[in-house]
Amino acid sequence: MDKYNKIIQELIQFRNDRDWEQFHDSKNLALAISLEAAELNELFLWKKDNEVENINKDHLKEEIADILSYTFLLAEKHNLDVFDIVSEKIKKNAQKYPVDKAKGTAKKYNEL
């Protein structure tokens, strides 16, 4: 938890030092997450099956960091603990995707 709190404080300090909080409303943070996710997808665009696991790791790290940074800022803005909300989602998904029905298949929960 200390690492999480530390990174949140670093993100806030970075943002505040540049007076960017004015741009970080929920809509813009959500859009930024979406755009950064698109940049992550671009790393894999047009790659063949044997190439997708060998993409540039530095670029991969940068895009994941961008997505997480905006996600952390959006969660912090709404006083959400990312660990709690991910844990809650895992529990919900466990109900939607019981092991006996979902194991080994990529079917959506309503198709199981």
Commentary on this structure:
The chain is mostly helical. The protein has one domain (1-80): Helix Hairpins (Orthogonal Bundle). It has helices at 2-17, 26-44, 57-77, 82-96, 99-102. Helix 2 (26-44) packs antiparallel against helix 3. This is NTP pyrophosphatase, house-cleaning of non-canonical NTPs. It comes from Flavobacterium nitrogenifigens. It holds the Pfam family MazG-like. GO terms for molecular function: nucleoside triphosphate diphosphatase activity.
Write the layout of secondary structure elements.
Blueprint: H1 2-17, H2 26-44, H3 57-77, H4 82-96, H5 99-102
List keywords for this structure.
112 residues, 5 helices, mainly alpha, nucleoside triphosphate diphosphatase activity, NTP pyrophosphatase, house-cleaning of non-canonical NTPs, Helix Hairpins, dCTP_Pyrophosphatase, DCTPP
State the gist of this model:
The chain is mainly alpha-helical. The chain has helices at 2-17, 26-44, 57-77, 82-96, 99-102. α2 (26-44) packs antiparallel against α3.
